[in-house]
Design goal:
Largest sheet: 11 strands, mixed
Number of domains: 2
Number of helices: 10
Shape: globular
Helix content: 25-40%
Order of helices and strands: HHHHHHEHEEEEEHEEHEEEEHE
Number of strands: 13
Structural class: alpha+beta
Length: about 325
């Protein structure tokens, strides 16, 4: 999709130049799209105090907050917060980098759609037409001891995943790094047991766990994206082609996340000490963060501001934002 022009105020503040185009009607419509999550008065006030900014609320939003209700924010309002905090391209890029470090834990799921990965999915016991993620942050894995009535697949989520961002603006690159899970294939459960250091389990009348399960290895991950060949969408609608069982919830990505869409050779991946390789086909990268009830509620709004900053940084380095999913 063709790049949508940024607003005059945004470009002028970041580059010192007045763009030669009028503000896009499509972009205006996107700016008025609301977040999927509603904020309360305490969240907004804490954020304003911490960051030293003022959110320009409309009458309906003010009335809802005064009545003790929650209110959504328009994407344009959140974008204006970013533009007030980041007055130069360099400050925007550094804001993206520092925000990732401060707003942990952040989740990532990377899906690769090509003939080889779809062929792999045919080995699954079920959901053969749904694509598993090839990479996840944090690490999701199959573990027999995790099986319960509520978790029949025995999926264990790591609680110590890390996520970082580097902006290589001179090369139009954005780099995501972290500790996470690397998809290593669909393997018989008894084999996975040996790989993760568990004793094989034999039940009377059986010869072990022959059912194939997704196997993810804990690895250091580095994902380099050519932002000039990518599109970014805030609050994406969950894709029915994806299998999110070994991943962060699609609801989290929809309410508190973004999606980056890439095509052939625009994403390079390095896993552990292996050589970097280009990903073939379509690559979809989802990034999000689930609100943590026990933490300062202002951090949820801070994360939405960070998401907007990522979208704007990618646009500034050549990536074209898609219309926001409704």
């Amino acid at each position: 999709m063709a790049n949508l022009p940024r607003s005059k105020g945004f470009v002028q503040r970041l580059t010192g130049q007045t763009p030669p185009w009028p503000r896009s009607i499509a972009r205006e419509r996107d700016d008025k799209t609301s977040t999927k999550y509603a904020f309360d008065l305490e969240e907004i006030e804490r954020f304003q105090t911490k960051m030293g900014v003022k959110i320009d609320l409309d009458r309906e939003q003010v009335a809802a907050l005064e009545d003790g209700s929650r209110t959504t924010l328009q994407i344009g309002q959140i974008g204006e917060i970013v533009r007030s905090l980041c007055t130069t391209p360099k400050s925007l890029f550094r804001f993206v980098e520092s925000g990732a470090a401060e707003l942990q834990p952040i989740s990532l799921s990377l899906f690769v759609l090509n003939e080889d990965t779809w062929r792999l999915m045919q080995k699954k016991k079920d959901h053969k037409t749904n694509m598993l993620p090839m990479l996840t942050v944090p690490w999701f894995r199959w573990e027999p001891a995790a099986k319960t009535k509520m978790n029949p697949l025995g999926i264990r989520r790591d609680t110590h995943g890390t996520f970082g961002v580097s902006m290589l603006e001179d090369k139009s690159r954005i780099v995501f790094t972290g500790n996470g899970g690397d998809f290593a294939g669909l393997i018989e459960g008894r084999v996975v047991r040996r790989l993760i250091g568990l004793r094989p389990m034999f039940l009377p009348g059986t010869i072990g766990e022959r059912e194939k399960v997704p196997h993810y290895e804990s690895q250091l991950l580095r994902i380099t994206i050519d932002s000039s060949e990518s599109d970014c969408a805030l609050y994406p609608i969950p894709d029915k082609k994806f299998d999110f069982r070994f991943s962060e919830s699609p609801k989290v990505f929809h309410e508190h996340g973004l999606r980056i869409d890439c095509v052939n050779d625009s994403v390079h991946l390095q896993v552990g000490t292996r050589a970097e390789t280009a990903l073939r086909g379509e690559t979809k990268i989802l990034i999000g963060r689930s609100p943590i009830p026990a933490e300062n509620s202002a951090s949820t709004l801070a994360f939405h501001v960070w998401l907007s900053a990522v979208e704007q940084a990618m646009a500034l380095t050549g990536g074209g934002p898609k219309p926001v999913s409704s």
